[in-house]
Write a structure and sequence with these properties.
single chain, alpha+beta, 6 strands
């Protein structure tokens, strides 16, 4: 397992904002003491093409995913998208809202 601070555009480590990577390649975004996003490493095998595609299953904490401007700023960086894109993916079911802080 690896834990690192999110870094600013200037390369400075941001306090209380963490990216966690487990031994299976799953990634998590934690803000302060709350888990915000879980990116589960997944793969698909296409028998016809004999190809493997890698993708992430995205889960957002239902309570904290949009808790504050600070959380939102770093969540957007972690996901590589805007809040508008995230909301669309939640609405479409591509992203799952769940309790990541049980």
């Amino acid at each position: 397992m690896k834990v690192q601070n999110i870094t600013s555009n200037n390369g400075n480590k941001i306090a209380n904002q963490f990216i966690i990577t487990d031994d299976d390649g799953n990634k998590f975004f934690q803000s302060y003491n709350s888990m915000i996003v879980k990116k589960t490493n997944c793969s698909n095998y296409n028998v016809e093409n004999n190809e493997v595609s890698i993708f992430y299953k995205i889960e957002l904490d239902q309570k904290y995913w949009n808790y504050s401007n600070t959380t939102g700023k770093y969540r957007n960086i972690f996901l590589g998208e805007t809040i508008t894109e995230t909301k669309k993916k939640i609405k479409s079911g591509e992203y799952i809202l769940t309790d990541l802080n049980k």
